[in-house]
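Researcher: Hi, I'm a grad student and pretty new to this. My advisor asked me to get structures for two proteins we've been looking at. I'm not sure of the right format, so I'll just paste the first sequence and hope you can take it from there.
Model: That works fine. Here's the first sequence with its C-alpha cells right after it:
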Amino acid sequence: MIKVKSFVFNPFAENTYVLSDETGSCVIIDPGCYEQQERQQLQNYIDEQGLKVETLLNTHCHIDHVLGNWWVKDTYNVPFGIPPLEESMLMAVKSYAGNYGFSQYQELLPDFYINEHDIIDFGRSELKVISAPGHSPGHVVFHCPEQAFCIGGDVLFKGSIGRTDLPGGDHDRLIKSIHEKLFPLDDNTLIYCGHGPSTTIEEEKISNPFCALT
C-alpha cells in the first residue's frame, strides 16, 4: 500500500510528493524545496518515518518543480530521472533562476530517462508512466492503478488546467492529453496536482470549465 505525503514549497506553492510503502522504500517526486527550512521539513519527515529514498523523479522540469533536485541527490545519493523531452527545459533553468530570486539554484542533470509505459519500482510498489504533454513538451504523470491515483504534475488541476503560455506549452496538446490519457482512467482516480488541492477524474470530467466532457 502506497502512502502519499505532500509538502507545499517555494513561492510558487508547488506540491512536492513523497511516496512510500510498507517496506520503508520511497520515491521523491518534484522536489520544490529551496530554502533550508523547506529542505529540513522534507528531511525530518523521511527520518521520522524511517524511509529509504530510492529514486528522484520529475514530472516535468519547470523551475518550481526542480529547485530541490540537487539537494535530494546530494543528500540521498539516488538516481534522478526525467522525461527526455524535458532535458532542455531543465538545462534552461540556471539561465533564469536568478531572475526569480533563486540565485543559489544548483543544476542537476539526469541519470536516466522516463518514457511512457515505463514502470517505476520501489519497495513492493509500482508506478506506471503516462505521457501527457502540453503544459511542457515531455510532461508525464505517475499512475498507480491498484490504488487509483496519479501524481499529475501540472496537467490537470481542480477546476483548472496547466498553463500553456510558457516556452514549450501547447494548449491543444494539453487538452488532448487530458481527454486521451487521463479521462480514460477510472472515474474515482485521485489526481495529486502540482499545485493546489487534489481532485478526481470524475469531478473534472463533469465540472472543469476548460476540459469537461459535458
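Researcher: Oh nice, that was easy. Here's the second one.
Model: And its structure:
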Amino acid sequence: MVDKKLTRRELGLASAGAIAGATMLGRGLVHAQEATPVPAGGPPMVLPPGVSVYADGLFNPRYITFDENDTMYVAEAGDGGTDAHYAPAGDGTPADSEVLSYSGLTGQVTKITSAGDRTVLTGGLPSYTFGTEVVGPAGIAYANGTIYLGIGGPGPATALIEPIEYRDSVVSIDPGTGEVKLLANIGEYERSTNPDPNAVDSNLYGTTVGEDGMVYQADAGGNTVYKIDPTTGEFSVFAVIPGVPMPGFQNTARGGNEEIDPVPTGLAPAPGGGVYFGELTGGPFPPGAAGVYRIDPDGTITTVATGLTMVTGVEVSGDGSLYAVQISENFLAQPPAAGSVVKIDSTGAVTKVIGDLPIPNDIAFDSAGNMYVVVITTSSAGTPPSGMVLKVDMSAVTPDGTPADGGATPDASPAVAAGLAVETIDLAFKPNQLEATAGEVTVEVTNAGVLPHDFTIDALNVSSGTLASGESKSITFTAAAGDYQFYCSQPGHKDAGMVGKLTVS
C-alpha cells in the first residue's frame, strides 16, 4: 500500500529507512513493511447495518471511480511477481544477495457494470512487493470519456530498482478498449529532481480530476502533489506537503526535525478549484495526527479537518458533502483498531458515518448517492485475492451523517456530565469539547497516545501533570460558569493544535 520510511525510535519496531518491517498480529491485521496493515483473515462476519458486499476476490484493490453510466472501475495493485531485484552489493561482497523486491505485470483495472458484469479492462500493469507489501495501480479517476490511473512503485527503493514501463507514472486508459498511454512519468522526475527534498522515494497513490480539467496526482512516497495537463502530459509540482509536527520525536530521515512524513494519499476536487487531500502520515502513525487539507489553485495549503488517523481516501458526494476514510482509528492499539468513514462539515467537525471496517482505503458514490467502500485493501503476495468493495445504502444514514441506529456519535461532540472523561491522542483531545455545570467538576484524563501529554487549564490553575502513554489520572476542581480553554502544555503540543474547550453553565 503506502510505503514510508519507518521512524519509530520510541516504539522499537524498526529502524529508520527499513524496507522490510516487523509483524504484529491482532484484529485480523498484520503489521507489514512500512507499517501497512495486511489482513490475516477475512472481513467481519457481520457487516454493519445497511452494508452489503458489491464485489470480492480483488487483488489488493486501492481506489475506485464511476463513469456516467455507473460503471465502476477498480484499480488493483496486483500480486507482485517473480522477477527479483537485489540490493547493491557492498565492497568485498561477491554478489548481490538481499532481495529488495519482486516485480511482475500483475496489476490491473477491473470494470464492473451497474448490472454486475465484471471484466478485466486492462491487465499486465506493474506490480511490486516489499516484504508482504504489494504496490502497483492505485489512484483512479474518470473524466470526459477517459480513465486516469496512477501506478505506484517501490518507494524507498525507487533509485535502486530499474523501472519497468509505466512504473511511478500516470497513464490514460480507453474505457472501451483498455488501451494504455503514458501521460506523465512522475518517478523519473522524483529521481532527477526530488522536490520534497528528503530521500528519493516515489509511490503514486490518489488520483483525481479537478474542476479545471487538470489531472492531480499524489505521490505518497515523494510527499508531493502534481498537476498534469491531460492533453499534453506536461506536469508541474502543485504542492510539496510539509512534515507533520511531532514535538519530542526527532526524525533522522527528515534532517533531525521533530516531524513525521505527511504522506499525501487520497485526492478529491475542491469546489472553486484546487483539491482536497488526505494524510496517512508516516510512522509511528500516532492517533489524531492526520487530517484533511485543501490545496488552493495557487498552491496554498489550508486545513480542513484535524484529529484524524491514517487517512487514505477523500471524496465529495453528489450533495457536496466531504468524506474521508481512516484505514485504522488507532493502529498503535493492541489489537489495532478497525477503520472507518467519517463526514466533515464546513467547520471541520467530524462525524463517524460507518465504523468497524477492515482496512478501508477509498470511497466513491454512484448517481443514486450510494456509497461504495474499498476494504481489505492490501494482502500478502501469494495469497488468494481477498479485497472487496462494499455498498452502503445511504438511505439508512440520517442527514447529519449519523447511522439511523444511533451507533455512531460525532468525534467532536461535547461530553456533558459532572464526571467527564477525555483522552489525549497525538496530537489532539478526544473529545475536544466538554460541558459541565458550575461547581465541582471531575475530569478523568487518559493518555491514549504515544508521546507524553497533560491536561491543563490555566484560568482555573488546573493540571493533570505529565501522563505517560497508557496512564490515567482523575482531577477535581471548582469552576464558575464560563468558557475555559484546556490544552497540553508539553513543548510544542499546543501550537500543533492540541487544545479544547470546557463550557461551564
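Researcher: Is there anything I should tell my advisor about the second?
Model: You could mention this: The chain has two domains: 25-49+63-86+99-396, 415-504.
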